[in-house]
Here is the input.
Amino acid sequence: SEDRSLNFIEEIIEEDIKSGKHGGNVITRFPPEPNGYLHIGHAKSICLNFGLAQRYGGKTNLRFDDTNPETEETEYVESIKYDVQWLGFEWAEELYTSDYFDKLYSFAVKLIEKGLAYVDDSTSEEIAGQKGTPTEPGVPSRYRDRSVEENLRLFSDMKAGVYRDGEKVLRAKIDLASPNMHMRDPIIYRIKHAHHHRTGDNWCIYPMYDFAHGQSDAIEKITHSVCTLEFIPHRPLYDWFIEQLEIYPSKQYEFARLNMTYTVMSKRKLLQLVNDGYVTGWDDPRMLTISGLRRRGYTAASIREFCERIGVAKRENIIDVSLLEFCVREDLNKRAWRRMAVLDPIRLVLTNYPEDQVEIFQGENNPEEENGGGSREIPFSRELWIEREDFMENPSRKFFRLGVGLMVRLKNAYIIKCDDFRKDEAGNITEVHCTVVWGTRSGEDNSGLSVKGTIHWVSVPHAKTAEVRLYDRLFRVEDPGSGEGDFKEYVNTESLQVIPGAYIEQDMATAEVGKGYQFIRKGYFTLDKESTPEKLVFNRTVTLRDAWAK
Ligand code: ATP
Ligand code: MG
Ligand code: MG
Here is the structure.
């Protein structure tokens, strides 16, 4: 990360440090609303906020922006904390906007006392109707000129539970003619008799986002409050509250949110996929949630690298999901142990190999590592499973695998020659018969033979059975969110393929969740959380090459 040019926020920070603004401090925050699981878009914000603090010797708070009691839950809080840590970041403080409810209430009282806020009895329809248009000013509510005393009393009654939901709101008194609609007397508190996941039933009034966010930043002395572009029009209001309340001058900066092809990127939409059963949960390996990516076999390092590569822009764009796949391939290539697994098996019989003989071959764990990352033992016997597609009854001239008369190398073992095959009544190949070419053991081959193809295999009596889950993109179209109609119509119903009976090397019985494996020629895989010693389950993280590349 040191060899790239500065992004625009880093440039701002370096200026601020030079000029001594904020006393040279850098304090950022990541402010999720606990109303869903984090997705890859949040990862971008996490990497940016924590990355800035790391780079400039500052700190980052994790602040739960929990001002909407109906949609927020403790389950989401826990998952968010887990995901941020898993991504490799440590927050300075774990904070909750709800911890500031008393403080925010007193900020509202202060505004009322300054004549800058009023209680409005209008309905939400009336308020919307009075807003005006960008070219025409709004109309004052008939409650706009209530006295300070009356406003204080009514606001206190709102808090005390005297009124029902929607009966009254508190509005800031700013400018009904402002070209910025957010400045036209925005609502800052509403009545909601709802149970809050932390404050329980203590409150029946809750602050609006705009009244909570900037003030929370100020309370924490956040120096650089980074958010996404849609908050640009909120910035004057952010600054206005800070100025009127005479609190710490936090500053808001906006960057382009991450959009990606073949997915939707909003917790609200992801929740629909979960609730309507399109996926098995927030951590379904097809979801671009942090938990889904983790279960799919993505590493934290690959996600951080992805966020680094996409950079921090000031204009919206859409990133191809294949870049994320590229990043995980690159990372797993460095760390994943190589193993052999046969996903679509047919039986291969070595007719010249003694029936009860077993040989043990050595296979290196990872050729990218020093000394191959150590090695494992691979048992070899007369009967092997090979991939159905590695045999052809009538091989074409460019087919360098098995067909009668052709030779291949069995990975880590012998060269073999194909002599014959068996078929069932339906015409399916059931067995391939070959002979071992003696003197061709890998690493000790002085036969002078050279063969073009190498195939993977697993010894029949030693193989473990596993369920293997192959995933495709969850949506059939590049931008499911923008099309006509409901985004769920674009769900790819073929996005999960389950292979119930794959054969894998015996030592994969000790595979670990969270570790990546390369199944040679088949892709990168990881153990699924549903796996048991009786029934192993693997997820394919990604294929070895980009199958979608044109
Ligand atoms: P969603 O629409 O998915 O619910 P959100 O912005 O409402 O997203 P928050 O929990 O409020 O979700 O987000 C926490 C932080 O993550 C915010 O600062 C937000 O700007 C940032 N964030 C959310 N989505 C993205 C994204 N796609 N790209 C970059 N940052 C994002
Ligand atoms: Mg939000
Ligand atoms: Mg949201």
